[in-house]
Amino acid sequence: MKKINVKGRILGILIVTFITTNAFLIFLDEGEHVDRKSYINEWSKTITYDLFEKMDTKAVFASEETEPIYFNEEVGSFHEFLVEEGDTISEGDDLYTYDVLNYFQEEAHLESEASRLEEEIDAIEDFIDDIESYRVPDPPETNNRSNPFNNNSDTSDATPPSYVETEYMKEEKIAEQEAELAKQEAMLEMVEDQLGQLQDEGDRITVTSAFSGTVSEVSEDLEAPLLTLQSTNLVLEGTIPEQERKETEEEMVVEIDVPELEYETTGTLTSVDDYPEEVELHRSSRYPFTVSLENPSEELLAGYHADLKIITDESLGVVTAVEKALETEENLYAWVMNAEGILERRDIESGIEEQGLVEILSGLEDGEWLAVEPKDEFRNEAVFFTPLHTDDLRIRQMFKMERQSILTYGLLGLLSR
Known about the structure:
The protein is α+β, with helices and mostly antiparallel strands. 28% of the residues lie in helices and 34% in strands. The model is unreliable at 153-159 (pLDDT under 50). Keywords: Coiled coil, Membrane, Transmembrane, Transmembrane helix.
């Protein structure tokens, strides 16, 4: 007959009873009178960082400008093309020739066109002078009636823009008018060249280009336009869905990635249309946009595709925390190790998020430690303990200390107990 180990059974029963009783008392301890400890094995520290909200989309490279070239059959008879599709041309290069039908009529037409262009050039130059002579008020005045680049007709009660905004508008308008001036001067040069040919030769005129770019189309059947030229300057064109249209506006920074070339750069959102490319009842509308590049790579070609990230919002130099260290019931909160070394539940207010990092608007400061795992161990105002990471201990350096220092620190440790 097997001997029963009575003492062992009694000891086992006592241990189970002890554990059960303590667990039951803790369960009933609504007032938290029992001193509890939390075991935490993962922490995270708040840091100061720059966060961005980004919208993912796609776009394709296209020519910044397209210029159609027309031929008026009433002034002459077409003779021949001097360019082919794919040719790269510069301003002043020959495009095509035609034979004049009525010398005096064509001469009068070219002279009239030259006079018109000269008047437009004079007007543009005067406008540029007006803009350049305009002094941006600092601080801004309430009456902006004298602002030559303000398109707002109601100036009596309008709030003037800031000094920086107005200065930017001024420079932008000057650049716009200088580009138009260059275009009109090139047109005048082309017309004067045709007039000179007519007066020298009398019957055949060679039409030159007022535009630099690539010949994208040649109309062999002489249907209008006779030629289509595209500028070598590239922009990105794409569309965004109506759900994201309100989040975008001009001048936003865009991160650009061209996978085929392993090329990355940044650009600027130069335009976002207010009207969709088409409207359908049962389909989400899409709004065209354009992105410009400041210094594009020479390897880029029209038709290449790119992945874009439009930066719609940013918070620079803000306190951030990892998302997994934050919890929410009704309000967002975190478990923080406070100055006394006690675990504290603290309500926080958050801002934008990026790649697992969350902006902290209030509730946390830079450099605070947040408990991450295990979450079922988190208790408010609880003392905690955490595992010892032996990899962080410099054991060998301990034994390199002087013997007297080891004895001193050892005694201090014993006395502190």
